[in-house]
Design a protein that fits this description.
By secondary structure, the protein is of the alpha+beta class. The chain folds into two domains: 30 residues; 156 residues, Glutaredoxin, CATH 3.40.30.10. It is 35% helix and 23% strand. The strands form two sheets. A seven-stranded mixed beta sheet has the order 2-1-5-4-3-8-9, with helices on both faces. A two-stranded antiparallel sheet has the order 6-7. Helix 2 packs across helix 5. The chain is globular. The N and C termini lie far apart (54 Å).
Length: 194
């Protein structure tokens, strides 16, 4: 094989690597245009005891996180990070509706949610419902959750998936963020969504 042929092949491999690398980056970036099938309608109850529907949030970009108030670590850490990201957005934060949906409806009644969510951004809406309602919305968002028994009947934890969903103003799924993202990066990423 001649040197020019080797250089040509090497150039092709480098170009292909750059293209594939760019594709992989786009696929792994935090919030991208998404596959169909995540999200849907819901009817739940907020921290003030009011019935809320997904349609109540139309016109805003929804940031939805599923967790539970007795969570010892990832939930409060994620909600704090979301609060910090919204603060960094300044007036642009008004475009977003941050929503916390419990996966522990047995313990997370409206009064419990109200007390819990007050530690975070006042724009947060916290939602609960019956076990069937929570199961339905979790299926719609492809959320995994499971009760893990503790040493006493009411001393259990909830194993659950942990991502932040970004939904468009019309309720369509736009993408999601992993919860290991920091507030600066989340705020920067959210700025592109109008």
């Amino acid at each position: 094989m001649t040197n020019s042929a080797r250089i040509g092949i090497a150039g092709f491999i480098v170009a292909l690597a750059v293209i594939l690398g760019g594709f992989a980056y786009r696929q792994l970036s935090t919030a991208e245009q998404a596959p169909v099938g995540i999200g849907g309608d819901f009817t739940l109850v907020d921290q003030n005891g009011a019935t809320r529907h997904d349609s109540d949030f139309r016109g805003k970009l929804m940031l939805i996180y599923f967790g539970y108030t007795f969570c010892p670590d990832v939930c409060p850490t994620t909600l704090t990070m979301m609060t910090d990201a919204l603060a960094k957005l300044g007036p642009d934060a008004a475009r977003f509706a941050p929503i916390f949906i419990t996966v522990d409806p047995s313990r997370d009644k409206p009064a419990q949610l109200k007390q819990y969510i007050e530690a975070f951004d006042p724009r947060f809406t916290a939602l609960t419902g019956g076990a069937d309602q929570i199961a339905k919305v979790a299926r719609e968002y492809r959320v995994y959750y499971r009760k893990v028994a503790g040493d006493k009947p009411n001393n259990y934890t909830m194993d659950h998936s942990s991502v932040i969903y970004l939904m468009a103003r019309d309720g369509r799924y736009v993408g999601h963020f992993n919860t290991d993202i920091d507030a600066d990066t989340l705020a920067q990423d959210l700025k592109q969504y109008k």
